[in-house]
Amino acid sequence: DAGVIQSPRHEVTEMGQEVTLRCKPISGHDYLFWYRQTMMRGLELLIYFNNNVPIDDSGMPEDRFSAKMPNASFSTLKIQPSEPRDSAVYFCASSLGLHEQYFGPGTRLTVT
Amino acid sequence: DQQVKQNSPSLSVQEGRISILNCDYTNSMFDYFLWYKKYPAEGPTFLISISSIKDKNEDGRFTVFLNKSAKHLSLHIVPSQPGDSAVYFCAASGLGSARQLTFGSGTQLTVLP
């Protein structure tokens, strides 16, 4: 298996632009998670899905952030409009009914 | 309020010696604990886990110890190798939120050749 796939690996955008991050979980996994890593706050959970249904989005910082999972093999995290303070590394992770989550390589987002 | 704490931001160890990474937690509802390793420009990689019904779990060179009364866990790496140099994150999950991991801030381990 290729593991969790994220795209793009790096994204540089200007303030006010829409940003879409993509994730393909490991085939067969029923949970998908989006995390953000910053120097100040470390790794924090933004939202997670179970069987494509959002379960807990309490970590989503603002309404500018939204996430979807239209099918079992694809999820997006969208920021609209983006702001410089959104600059961070965004990780997607998936798991199969267990505690162990498997992470993708991350997307480094820079908003100027 | 940090529920999972890794108080040592960095640790240096000589190759071949033991590395001990520590983690403390405050939430009594946590019942499952994990260690992840992270290399630069990569995502965290699952390393080893332990359930609260155990006090030790071993996998090759890696052993995790859990002291529930002290709300403390540790990761032992023996013998340490230069390839073990990475950031190690402790994570915990608990009843009612079993799928949510709460991460510590990480410890940078450097194994010196």
What does this structure look like?
With 112 residues, chain A is mainly β. Chain A contains no helices and eleven strands. In chain A, the strands form two sheets. In chain A, strands 2, 4, 5, 6, 9, 10 and 11 form a seven-stranded mixed beta sheet that branches. Helices cover 0% and strands 56% of the residues of chain B. In chain B, the strands form two sheets. In chain B, strands 2, 4, 5, 9, 10 and 11 form a six-stranded mixed beta sheet that branches. In chain B, strands 1-3-8-7-6 form a five-stranded antiparallel beta sheet, with no helix packed on it. In chain B, β6 and β7 (62-67) form a beta hairpin. The termini of chain B are far apart.
Rg over C-alpha atoms of chain B, rounded to the nearest angstrom: 13 Å
SS content category of chain A? mainly beta
Euclidean distance between termini CA atoms of chain B:
38 Å
Strand content of chain B: over 45%
| Regions with little confidence, pLDDT below 50 for 5+ residues of chain A | none
Strands of chain B, count? 11
Instruction: Please state the overall shape of chain A, judged from the principal axes of the Cα atoms.
Output: globular
Cα(first) to Cα(last) distance of chain A is: 36 Å
The whole-number mean of residue pLDDT values of chain B reads 93
Annotation, overall tally of beta strands of chain A: 11
Residue ranges of chain B: pLDDT <50 for 5 or more in a row? none
Helix run count of chain B? 0
Any idea what the radius of gyration of chain A is?
13 Å
Main sheet overview of chain A? 7 strands, mixed
Itemize the secondary structure elements and their pairings.
The complex is a heterodimer of chains A (112) and B (113).
Chain A: E1 5-7, E2 10-13, E3 19-24, E4 31-38, E5 42-50, E6 53-56, E7 65-71, E8 74-79, E9 88-95, E10 102-103, E11 107-111
Parallel strand pairs in A: 2-11
Antiparallel strand pairs in A: 1-3, 3-8, 4-5, 4-9, 5-6, 7-8, 9-10, 9-11
Chain B: E1 4-5, E2 10-14, E3 19-25, E4 30-38, E5 45-51, E6 56-59, E7 62-67, E8 72-77, E9 86-94, E10 102-103, E11 107-112
